[in-house]
Amino acid sequence: MDYHIKDPALAEQGKLRIEWAAQSMRVLKTIKERFATEKPLKGLKISACLHVTTETAYLMQTLKAGGAEVRLCASNPLSTQDDVAASLVVHDDIPVFAIKGEDRDTYYRHIHQALAHEPHITMDDGADLVTTVHTDKKDLLSGIIGGTEETTTGVIRLRSMAEKGVLAYPIIAVNDADTKHLFDNRYGTGQSTIDGIIRATNRLIAGSVFVVCGYGWCGRGVAMRARGMGARVIVTEVNPIRALEAVMDGFEVMPIMEAARVGDFFCTLTGNTSVIRKEHFEVMKDGAIVSNSGHFNVELDLESLASIAKSRRTIRPFVEEFTLSDGRRIYVLAEGRLVNLAAAEGHPSSVMDMSFANQALSVEYLVKKGSSLSKSVHPVPKEIDENIAMIKLSSMNIRIDSLTEEQVKYLSSWELGT
């Protein structure tokens, strides 16, 4: 079997960690059990470019149980958990191409290797796999039924491709499902980002000034968790509606230039480029800690920071110290990449349960409906979204009400009023 991982000897450790994660992924367990019986993905080839974590491993096992032939590569050079990659290769016979800390050339070589079996479905987190197909592997396009996209950044890129008439096959925007972004982005990113910052620095959040750049669902989650740990939270935004929401939620809102002067911690979560730039680094106070939890490290202009630094060194794992000419020190976490996955373990498995349930069921939907879908970005069908929520509630032993016949009639009529 073709694969490229750090060390197969790590497989036993990875297997135990996957089992631990799977215990909290009861929605995906339900889907896996059905897939194993029905084999709805029999004969299907899937190329997946995702963060290689314990939760992703359980998704790969679920897809294979459904009959699919899966290949997996990393969607970020620093997010791979090497023991998990080893377990998938050794125990599940799933080809994995991912090594934590891989350089850019290796990263893209791994993407090409994940595509080598000529997939029918692409599964992406950030759209690097899709863009590679559309630029370097166009010969594969005719055989692809459709794809899925996991994250906000990827959906932005894919919508741009669709608007420009470049996208050659339909994509399901898993990120936009309510059972994904309302929970994964908010609660998952909130907890795991704070976890990554604390693991990397061991600094106290309470009493600090914590600057959150971007108040989308991920930014909301980080702001909420930072405040919960006792920080004074400042939000920066370019969207007036989101800025107003942040104010109404009780946060201070100001331009990044003002926030740069007072912040102790900074975290970008925008999906855009150059959010924190040279002029911001120049006014930061000594000891400022800068991180990113958006998909790509372009949110931090690290080239500009390096240009104004007289020296730089790695002072502890995932913490790089940049010393400016006046002696002030700025600390960048995890090379500006996803701090929650590079310096910690990513989202808790119970929240990824719903995200990856959307992935699995969206693949099944593409098998059934892909040929009838336009070459654009499509939502996860409402019935899939609601079904996942119901299974999740059931797994938590929570019951809810159902509409009465009278209520159904009332909601569907226009004649009934006061």
TrEMBL record:
Enzyme class: hydrolase
Binding site for substrate: 53, 125, 150, 180, 184
Cofactors (names): NAD(+)
One GO CC term on file: cytosol
Subcellular localization: Cytoplasm
Residue intervals passing through the bilayer: none
Domain of life: Bacteria
Alphabetized UniProt keyword annotations: Cytoplasm, Hydrolase, NAD, One-carbon metabolism
CDD domains attached to this UniProt entry: SAHH (cd00401)
EC number: 3.13.2.1
UniProt KW NAD keyword: yes
Catalysed reaction, written as an equation: S-adenosyl-L-homocysteine + H2O = L-homocysteine + adenosine
InterPro entries xref list: Adenosylhomocyst_ase-like_sf, Adenosylhomocysteinase-like, Ado_hCys_hydrolase_NAD-bd, NAD(P)-bd_dom_sf, S-Ado-L-homoCys_hydrolase_CS
Keyword Kinase: no
Predominant place of localization: cytoplasm
Pathway: Amino-acid biosynthesis; L-homocysteine biosynthesis; L-homocysteine from S-adenosyl-L-homocysteine: step 1/1
Pfam families: AdoHcyase, AdoHcyase_NAD
Positions contributing to NAD(+) binding: 151-153, 185, 214-221, 237, 272, 293-295, 340, 347
Summary of the function given for this chain in its UniProt record: May play a key role in the regulation of the intracellular concentration of adenosylhomocysteine.
Family from the record: Belongs to the adenosylhomocysteinase family.
Identification of the protein by name: Adenosylhomocysteinase
Organism: Thermodesulforhabdus norvegica
Lineage: Bacteria, Pseudomonadati, Thermodesulfobacteriota, Syntrophobacteria, Syntrophobacterales
Primary gene name: ahcY
